[in-house]
Amino acid sequence: MPLGQRVGDKSDSRYCGIETEFSDDMPQVLAHNKSGGFDFVLAPLIDPSYRPSLFASDVSNESRPLPFSGSDLVLSPAEWSGHVVGKISSWIDLDSEDEVLRADSEKTLKQEISWASHLSLQACLLPCPRGPSCSNYARCVNQILQSLNSNMQLWLRVPLEKVDIDDTNAMLNDAEHMGREHVVDSWEWWNSFRLLCEHHSQLSVALDIFGSLPSIPSIGRWFGEPVRAAILHTNSFLTNSRGYPCLSKRHQRLITSFFDHSVQIVLSGRLLHNISAESSGCVLINGSENHVEGVIRHPMRPYLEYVAFLYRRMDPLPEQEQFEIGYRDFLQSPLQPLMDNLEAQTYETFEKDTVKYSQYEMAVYKALLDRVPDENASTMTTVLMVVGAGRGPLVRASLQAAEEAGRKLRVYAVEKNPNAVVTLHSLIKLEGWETIVTVVACDMRSWNAPEKADILVSELLGSFGDNELSPECLDGAQRFLKEDGISIPSSYTSFLQPVTATKLYNDVKSYKDLSHFETAYVVKLHKVARLTPSQPVFTFNHPNCSSKNSNNRYKKLRFDISTETGSALVHGFAGYFDATLYKDVHLGIEPTMATPNMFSWFAIFFPLRMPVYVPSGSLLEVNFWRCCDASKVWYEWCVSAPTPTPLHNSNGRSYWVGL
Q1: Is 459 among the catalytic positions?
Q2: pLDDT, tens digit, for every residue of 194-233?
């Protein structure tokens, strides 16, 4: 039964499974574990003693059916698909030098996955690679993936720690720690395997969690990978003062992070704590315990109850996060505000962001106090122009700031969208602002202002700061700002960060064309690994007093992938911005200094046509261009080290923003 329920949480991580041994009585196995509180079983589909070569030599039994776990009729289709994950035989070794073993392994792998597909299982667990050289194993899996039922995932079992090559399989089978004189990073095994399988979207990861964990940066890489399950071994549990199992603080944080990333927990191993197998009986129902007299307690129940405890104690999702769940890792095309008129629904979404407008209000408030001394407050009127006024939220914020500051305003609300202008006129009439606010139905770049402004307010920032053409718009509007006038915002800087983002990469790859790999996307990043701190790219200041009129830019960035993180695969770059509205008032989405509780902007994602492998301790060198001509603005990007990539979006052939 589910571990618990969090408001707004539809995550698969609510369900917890258990790894079982082979049994030819699958109904009994499933019934026993479901009654113990588990939602599904991770179970072998075939007798582990079966070998095709031995079976073929048994001439007297040629007509005997293969030793699968009974008929497909022993469970209903709903039980097979909803409560069983198939476990492929762990003895298979497709890269063995023993030809018989290799042939047996290949035949068995295909038989078992075929049987699992016939049963409509949602997933099958593949054995862990036996070392970094797994080419034949990956080749066979890749062949299977080409014709696999689209509803089934293959989970590759990988230990979440640096392991000794010779001891890997003993560790996985016995769940015991071994010596590590010749250790390797198990992420490298996964990376080699998925590269050989061409980044197939139905190939995922199941991580084995033992008592020791690698460094936090090393673990962080996995949150950008397609991790579907975490197999939590009983030997990773400690014992609390009452004799019950518990986890270390590091393990607790890891499991909680898995919950947040929709990773399902699977318990594995044997009972290692001295807890009586019989009790008054206890069943988890909707996250609470219900006692039933005389019921035999499932031996793994104490571990399940602890995992459920970790799930239930998580903070409920904030309202903002609940709203954004549907946008997580979903590719959206950036707005084209100059070419397209926004719809009412888009305006409404942005206008709900009260944090953003309170920051603008504070900026206008401070600018008015600096602009007009107290002794002139009753006699001096400040001319404020809102360029790109939309439906009026910045007009309202500016008037509220003036009221708070005790300053007089004359406002021009400039907006090119004729539909938004209708709403603006209605707002002004409703609020009684006719003598204060003048609506100008015009593109700011072509408007001839009747007077110059003291303060110019705009909301033209995109996820990358300049990607909605704020520089070009404000440069055009600057001619009606007084020489000592104030621009809000006064500056903004874009930032880039290399990320592992398997889901985003596969989503772009699914379009099967070049143009989608050369397009920037607005994304609510969730299942990504941020590999290094972000770095600043382009900065624009307003008013622009520079003699250099061009808004073309070029920047070379060097990111250090640390040895503590380990090697990584870069699927693209996350882009952010940070803007100074006025003096110390800022807003932005760069992770380390993001404005709290603001949701108007998601990050922007620049994909790479081919992911770049960056060895541990290496530099990733990235080149970024902002290019302009008379009709459009576009970005170009490439990686120059450690491995050069093609130049993306040359001459804006795939993605551009129209002027």
Answers
A1: yes
A2: 999 999 999 999 999 999 999 999 999 999 999 999 999 9
Tens digits of residue pLDDT in 436-490:
999 999 988 889 999 999 999 999 999 999 999 999 999 988 999 999 999 999 9
From 161, 415, 459, 590, active-site residue: 459
351 is catalytic: no
Question: So what's the pLDDT on residue 132?
Answer: 75
Tokens 């290799």, residue?
A: 102
CATH code for position 104: 3.20.20.150
Alpha-carbon distances, residue 374 vs 378, 398, 408, 482 (angstroms) = 8, 18, 12, 21
Of 427, 455, 488, which marks where a domain is finished?
Answer: 488
How far apart CA 231 and CA 227 sit, in angstroms, is: 11
CATH number at residue 597: 2.70.160.11
| Residue 66 vs residue 385, higher pLDDT | 385
Q: What is the residue type of 382?
A: T
- Which is catalytic among the residues 225, 415, 468, 636? 468
Residues 484 and 601 in one domain: no
- CB-facing half-sphere around the CA of 323: CA atoms within 13 A: 11
Is residue 304 situated within a structural domain?
no
- Domain hosting 88: range is 12-236+257-269
Are 657 and 651 in contact, with CB atoms under 8 Å apart?
A: no
